Amino acid sequence: MDIQQKIAKLDWAAITQSMNDKGYASIPGVLLSEVCDELIANYSSPDIYRKTIVMEHHGYGQGQYKYFNYPLPPIVQQLREAVYPNIAPIANSWMQVLGIDTRFPESFAGLNELCHQHNQLRPTPLILKYQQGGYNALHQDLYGDIYFPMQLVICLSEPGEDFDGGEFVLVEQRPRMQSRPMVLTPRKGDMLLFTTNFRPVMGSRGYYRVNMRHGVSEVTKGERYTLGIIFHDAA
Ligand SMILES: O=C(O)CCC(=O)C(=O)O
Ligand SMILES: [Fe+2]
């Protein structure tokens, strides 16, 4: 089964419900171990990335990441194209209930074209590498006027084997309430889909915006690699 078929067969009704209720969804076993290993091995390929970021130079945490260049590796392009049409309806329902006029195209090609029309031309999918002491400060990945409200990350390393610590952290900031932390521990090949900036939550006076940020706790041992897929391109 190829990755498109695998993505198509996921329980999108359950994923939609989890996104609406919790702001994230855990989807185990999306990438085979060999595919994870190949992505890690290609971290040192000189030609497939457009930029390397050393996180401590920017106050982003400790570790580094590389943005892929176009053309994206097939697996990355396929994941963007296969996941997007299943979550565009979630994004559109979020915009609708929040009274925001934005509507996202049905297909990934449509979103990509919209980004390019707004001069957001640079690809945002990336590989992140954390070594002992590495972490990722809480943040949101917004790269221009056009931003899709969900993104995904796939863990490429095995917790407890390749690394310790390095939990994926989500913090939900609710208006006039204290923030809610969520800690997730994806295994090698598992995918997490999560809210990039905000989602609607029903309150006594209708829907309100709940803001979300994500990050990674300290890697206490070994090396942790992840593949991050953001759907909008960067200005
Ligand atoms: O390494 C992680 O789990 C987080 C990666 C991240 O911040 C992202 O993909 O946007
Ligand atoms: Fe991020």
UniProtKB/TrEMBL annotation:
Query: Is Protein biosynthesis included in the keywords of this UniProt record?
Result: no
The family database entries (PROSITE patterns) matched by this protein are listed as:
FE2OG_OXY
Q: Which residues form the Fe2OG dioxygenase domain?
A: 117-234
Q: Which GO terms describe its molecular function?
A: metal ion binding; oxidoreductase activity
Keywords noted in UniProt: Iron, Metal-binding, Oxidoreductase
- Does the keyword Ribonucleoprotein belong to this entry? no
Family stated for the protein in its record: Belongs to the iron/ascorbate-dependent oxidoreductase family.
Q: What is the protein name given in its UniProt record?
A: Prolyl 4-hydroxylase subunit alpha
